[in-house]
Amino acid sequence: MTDKKNKIVYSVFWNCGLIIFGSLIQVVVLKGIAAPHQFIPGGLFGISSLIFYLTNWLNPGIIYLLLNIPMFILGYLFVSRRFLWYSALAMITVSLAYQVINFQIPIENELYAAIVFGALFGLGSGIVLRSLGSNGGADVLAIILNQKYNFGIGKFSFSFNLILYTTCFFFLDSDLVIASMIAVFIAAQSINYTLSMFSQRKMAFIISEHPKEIADQVMCHLGIGMTMLPAIGAYRGQEKTVLMVVINNIQLKRLEEIVFTADDHALFIVENTFNVLGSTFSKRKLY
After folding, report:
1. Using CA atoms, how far apart are residues 277 and 285, in angstroms rounded to an integer?
2. What is the biggest distance separating any 2 CA atoms in the chain, rounded to whole angstroms?
3. Contact status, residue 18 vs residue 198, Cβ threshold 8 Å
4. How confident is the model at residue 6 (pLDDT cuts 50, 70, 90)?
5. How many whole angstroms separate alpha carbon 154 and alpha carbon 135?
6. Helix (H, G, I), strand (E, B) or coil at 134
7. Crossing angle for the helix pair 153-171 and 43-55, to the nearest 10 degrees
8. Is pLDDT above 60 for 28?
9. By three-state DSSP, how is residue 199 classified?
10. 118 and which of 77, 152, 183, 204 could share a cystine (Cβ 3.0–4.6 Å)?
11. Nearest-CA neighbor of 107 among 187, 181, 156, 35?
12. How far apart are CA 272 and CA 29, in angstroms?
């Protein structure tokens, strides 16, 4: 099952489908919401939009394509040829679709428009980032820095957009820039939710006087393994066994029932995990 899933995830059809679908969602809201309200999206498309609003030269889609040429070269040099071509597909899809799609989504209130734009734009971006490519533009730089120096993609995006919007305040109406910042903030949250939609897990720690019984029940009824961690209670110095398990949201309630059925006095600790790699979970993404 795992091998079959990996074949799908790394297949050309799957990745191209994610990239085209996600890119089209982005273009729909860029053309239908951002353009009528003159929002400045984050990233390289934001720079393209700013150049267009200030100079009325070409249009944001073509400017975006031109600015992506150096990103295209960097992706080839520092990541991989596969990453390059998938990212190029996203860049070209956005640029071409921006020329073809021509309609407005009727939202008059600027704040409402920013919220809807951010949520949908983040959804589209997240779908693309689930592939083996990227949205192009600043995402290429973000992934290079993350792969080479473990610099967080979110940190890079924040720094890049901070410089972009600081510049925008000198040239554009302050209310418009603030609305654009709200949209980008919501888009960032939407991207995170989209990326973690099928990867997020819960990590549970269980401290009980009956660890073996609980572990056996979990493995029997839920079909998942557990890890037994040796521990010592600080108050009495008594040796204990702490159970650790990584589980999905659906199984969490069943795990809780197993634990407290076996031991009413058990301590049940649950933490969110953004992503779990290895073993029977998701495999590390290789660009």
Report:
1. 9
2. 75
3. no
4. low
5. 14
6. coil
7. 10
8. yes
9. coil
10. 183
11. 35
12. 31
Contact 208, 259 (CB under 8 A): yes
Half-sphere exposure of 179 (CA within 13 A, CB side): 20
Window from 103-117, 227-241, 270-284 with minimum mean pLDDT: 270-284
Rg, C-alpha atoms of the chain? 23
d(CA 251, CA 160): 39
Fill in the amino acid letter for 270.
V
The Cα-based distances of 283 to 3, 10, 223, 230, 276 in angstroms read 10, 11, 20, 28, 8
- First CA to last CA across the chain, in angstroms? 22
- Among candidate residues 99, 95, 100, the one with its CA nearest the CA of residue 45: 95
- pTM score above 0.85: no
Domains defined for the chain, CATH in brackets: 2-196 (no CATH), 201-273 (3.30.70.120)
Q: Closest by alpha carbon to 205, among 107, 140, 137, 273? A: 273
Range 33-52 average pLDDT:
88
Tokens 């702490």 locate to 242
